[in-house]
Amino acid sequence: MLAMRIHSSSLFMGLLLLACKPGDQIASSRGQLDGAKTSEYSNNTDTAIDDTLTDTPASVSVPVSGINLTFRVSKDADPKSVDAYIVGYVDKLPVQRISDQEFVIRDVPAGLHEVIVTGLASSDHESNLGLRLPFESSGATLDLGLLNLPPTGGLQGQAEMEGVASFSTVQLQFPGTKIPAITTDAIGHYVGNKIPVGNHKLSWAIKGNPQSIPAAAKIESASNGQKTSRDIVRSKHNSPTNLKLQPIMNGMALSWISGGGNPVGYLAYRGLAQDNFQPVNGQSYAPGPQGAGTIVSVGAQQSVQDSGLTAGTNYTYRVFTYSRDLVYSSPRTGSGTALVMNSGYQRYRLYIESVANNCQSQGTAQIQALNFFINKKWQVNDFTSNTNVGHIGLFPATIAVNSMYNSSYDAFYAFQDDNLAWSSSFKTYDGNSPHNFLSNKNPDGIYFDIDFGGTRVAIEGLEMLGGEPPFYPECVPDSYYMMGSNDGTNWVAIPGSARQESTLTRVRYYFQNEIRPLSPLDFKLLSNEGQIQLSWESAAGAEVGYLLVRSRMPETFLAENGRSYTTGSNESGYEILHDGNQLTYMDTDFEDLQSPYYYTLFSYDANRQYAPAIVGRATPEKRQTYRYYRFHVMSILGGGPSTAWVDSLRLQINGAWVDTYNFTGMQGTIGSMNVSLVESSASGLNHANGLFGAGYWQTARSSFNAGGMWDAVSKTGEYVQMDFGTTPVAITGFRALGNTGYDANNKYVSNMYYQVPDVVRMERSQDGLQWEIIEGSTSGDSFALEIEQVW
Questions:
Q1: Counting C-beta atoms within 10 Å of the first and last residue's C-beta, which end of the chain has fewer, N or C?
Q2: 635, 681, 682, 675: which is closest to 651 by C-alpha?
Q3: Cis omega before residue 728 (within 30°)?
Q4: Of the candidates 175, 181, 320, 309, which has an alpha carbon nearest to the alpha carbon of residue 243?
Q5: Rounded to whole angstroms, what are the CA distances from 353 to 367, 423, 444?
Q6: What's the CA dihedral at 553, 556, 560, 565 to 10 degrees?
Q7: Lowest mean pLDDT among 460-469, 556-565, 688-697
Q8: Considering only 17-31, 174-188, 472-486, which range has the smallest mean pLDDT?
Q9: How far is CA 80 from CA 55, 76, 122, 132, 551, in A?
Q10: Count of C-beta atoms within a 10 Å radius of residue 385
Q11: What is the phi-psi region of residue 606: left when phi exceeds 0, alpha when psi lies from -120 to 50, beta otherwise?
């Protein structure tokens, strides 16, 4: 008996199904197929007939190494044009013709395989036919029977680049087959034809990336009008930028930022000036000697302290990004000379000269957050022990103040950045403008003392956020400076540290002005239907403006130093979108809402010298919608009745803020959509509908722990749930206000203020049972002011 099992496509999940009828069109979430009529198929069988096999399968001589696979083709196919091969054995197992319409492939190994059979139509000798068929072989001979070869199909789709390489480096391949690889155009579109009908495993190959990328695709009928989506291919990332080198004693401190695209990590290399070390793609590295130089750092960190160097010697560094496939970028380079001894001081004082107002007649200064720029990096504080002993970056530090309101406003609160604040003593500043410190009460001024023990530290920049909710505008420092000392007796003013600027919003500055423009920080792209919102932050270098460029091509735009660009112009496929000092841009003019767009952002100085580029990509498509959402209060500032109080909540849906809210009880409308509310708890009549109209929502008494983090008692937390019923939506942001701490008579009420949320997030669900936290929705700000959170 013959052993034959033909496997259904259900056993080949993740394969590409091509068109099987002439004129049919099949579309998928990954590609689209069209019936094709082409002039010739490139691979044909030998026209000579092999008579060594007869029509009787039992008489076939079977080698010990495998079986003979036989099949016949219908008269629709010209037998002289037929070619066949086993996938993965293209050149090893040739097909032979044993009669007019019958063929054999010898020595096929036992197991699961696929055979591809192609040919030309006998009617015109031009139309391509082809079939890809899975089978499992065992026994002596396997006969596939009569095969009716259908017309071949065509494939088209869109690729998206994760990285900055050109699409000319990309191919879509059919591994183990004779099917030619498909190339894309400059923006990632691809079209292929003469593809045999069946399930196909595809693979993206990118020059420079040793890892091929499988294409997981399923083709469905085109009659449903389904749009093609995108395969993401991965190339090298943009180079890191803002590389800074700080000479230290017998060493060098380095820091840098990402050039965009979310690389997995960075490799920092030290070598000679003429050393052109470039990591090998696909190869992993560890710190240590490498060629003529040394790898000093590998990993996700964006800074390193390279020690053990020779004082007075110049060193050159090359910093690379790398991807998940270990594809390395071009380097960012810099050089510096190690010092004989560390610069800087062991102790510093930060003096607060004046405040913006009289602080509700309290005459105090308040600071929520202090951060320092040390060794070319903004350091992270660690004073989680709630004492004045902790760390500023890696440096142990002890802090103190010479003026404090009470122990609830101790110095360490200014180093925690958690909505709590340090406050000076009562009436230490003049109640009349200018609100300078009162020298008769504090002849030495009002200051923080930062002691690094025996370690000299060079502080080169300061970041400060003043005030404490709800007194933001009236208690913030607006004049301050620093001094340094190595003995605690002799103090020296730190050049460039004196500043006169309100700290109502976070102020960050460097003591020595950068003479070069620095690349922007925190480049964000938020995509919604028909729009992409872009935002970034200043790096506080010499930059005076920003240039934003858009393209359908992933290669980074190269800005020409000294040249200005005209907004709205096109530079060889790169559109100039924005040129100015704004930090945001809303892009709404798109040709294709289903394709990715690639952005390049530069900063520039007064001479139009451009900093290295930051890159990003986004697609202006509609977000996934959900039926259920929860506005979730995680913790409160704390005190009083241990409840949360939220005055108002406004929603952004699919990138647009909704202006109209109408509720009667727990049923109502948000915009034109019907919504039902459910609350985790409430106090009295202060139910969830108060968020969207008159009143407010207040959770039950003691619903938050008294003390500690003042977090919710219930494991499910305190929340307002919104059910959009049959009209699921994509919530993409919120604006919320806890309360200002002032009652209707504009009187400050501490019990109100204690109930202000200080950690809030949004969650979503399709069924109301399984919930997920929305990435980017969590806010740790105090909601004593209206907070906007967009993701």
A1: N
A2: 675
A3: no
A4: 320
A5: 13, 14, 11
A6: 50
A7: 460-469
A8: 17-31
A9: 18, 12, 10, 19, 49
A10: 9
A11: alpha
Spatial contact of 578 and 548, defined as CB atoms under 8 Å apart: yes
Number of Cβ within 10 Å of residue 458's Cβ equals 21
pTM: 0.77
**What are 266's two structure tokens?**
């960075």
* Non-local CB neighbours of 109 within 8 Å, separated by 6+ positions: 65, 66, 137
pLDDT at 141 over 50: yes
Examine the pLDDT at 230 and tell me if it is beyond 90: no
- The percentage of residues in the chain with a pLDDT greater than 70, rounded to a whole number, is 89
What is the residue-wise DSSP string for 617-636? EE---PPPPBSEEEEEEEEE
CA angle 465, 469, 475 (to 5 degrees): 60
Peptide bond into 470 cis (omega under 30): yes
CA pair distance 752, 636, nearest whole angstrom: 11
Q: What is the pLDDT of residue 511?
A: 93
d(CA 685, CA 36): 69
End-to-end CA distance of the chain: give it in Å, rounded. 64
Of 316, 355, 341, 452, whose CA–CA distance to 394 is shortest? 452
- How do strand 251-257 and strand 507-510 relate by DSSP bridges? unpaired
Cβ neighbourhood burial of 757 (10 Å; 0-12, 13-18, 19+): buried
Determine the Cα–Cα distance for residues 553 and 160; give it in Å rounded to an integer: 10
pLDDT, mean of residues 14-32: 35
Asked if 44 and 82 count as a contact pair (C-beta separation under 8 A), the reply is yes
Q: pLDDT digits over 299-350, tens only?
A: 999 999 899 999 889 999 999 999 999 999 999 999 999 877 667 899 999 9
755 contacts 643 by C-beta, under 8 angstroms: yes
**Nearby residues of 591 by Cβ (< 8 Å), 6 or more positions away:** none
Give me the phi and psi of 504, to 5 degrees please: -55, -40
Q: Check: CB of residue 190 under 8 Å from CB of residue 174.
A: no
Average pLDDT, the chain: 87
